Amino acid sequence: MASIVPIPTESYNLGFIGAGKMAESIARGVVKSGVLPASQIRTAHLATARRTAFESFGAKVLSHNIEVVQESDVVIFSVKPQVVKDVILQLKPLLSEKQLLVSVVAGVKLKDLQEWAGHSRFIRVMPNTPAAVGVAASVISLGTAATKDDGELITNLFGAIGKVWTANEKLFDAITGLSGSGPAYIYLAIEALADGGVAAGLPRDLALGLASQTVLGAASMAVNVGKHPGQLKDDVASPGGTTIAGIHELEKSGFRGILMNAVAAAAKRSRELSQS
User: Fold this and answer.
1) Boundaries of each Pyrroline-5-carboxylate reductase dimerisation domain copy (predicted)?
2) End-to-end CA distance of the chain
3) Backbone phi, psi, residue 44, to 5°
């Protein structure tokens, strides 16, 4: 096997196979953060709305995926799981180990991606939907021929839309259950907090605004302050106060166990889907 040629860190072309919302979020973040100029990003799509979305920030929109691959050093597959095999097989004659291939397709394993592409310079990434506002939680796993430099390049790329971790692919089902599905659990929590505010007499708009900002603030504290979440909770819960009364109700209802079960159930379902 020929030695892997490093991708130039600042002068490579980035191509997206699939121009959906996730691809758009990644591309916009990359441009906004200055990782790459829009002129070095390309995709292809037939739908006018998707073409317009990419053109709006200066990305190059081509007429066919073949052209995207021909013009790109790093190729990100961002298509639906049920079509990714056909898409990669169609493009396989054009794919070479001079290119770094990346998949953000949920539930599709590296061994299959590498087999379909005909080589293993592949990186799998699991981002989540907050990529749309630049605060994604993304996890990467390197294929067998992907180099340390490749990993650093993709870490830098996805760092444009949030935080990035590296993990063994065997953990991806659990990651799906936590960060992949997790935003939906938090949306439910925000809605429930707002409903509680309404039940206590707040106007709906005020309750929803307070609930959303409270979750945002609490998450920012957990990320930035350097304290364990349990300690942050203790800091709010003064003896005989309002917070500990509320926490008591949550504990009686099994709040923590319910969230743990949700993550475990989603991880189990991810395993089932990836084996089907």
Assistant:
1) 169-273
2) 33
3) -145, 140
- Find the farthest-apart pair of alpha carbons in the chain and give their distance in angstroms, rounded: 69
Distance CA 213, CA 42 (A): 36
DSSP state of 129: G
**pTM above 0.85?**
yes
Taking a C-beta distance cutoff of 8 angstroms, is the pair 24, 45 a contact? no
pLDDT in tens, 32-65: 999 999 999 999 999 999 999 999 999 999 999 9
Q: Which residues lie across from 142 on neighbouring strands?
A: 123
| pLDDT the model gives residue 2 | 55
Q: Which of 102, 96, 78, 98 is nearest to 154 (CA)?
A: 102
> How far apart are alpha carbons 181 and 18 in whole angstroms?
22
Give the HSE-up count for residue 47: Cα atoms under 13 Å, Cβ half-sphere.
8
Sheet containing strand 41-44, strands side by side: 60-62, 41-44, 14-17, 74-77, 100-103, 122-126, 136-142, 162-166
Domains in the chain, please, with CATH?
14-172 (3.40.50.720), 180-275 (1.10.3730.10)
Does the pLDDT at position 131 exceed 90? Answer: yes
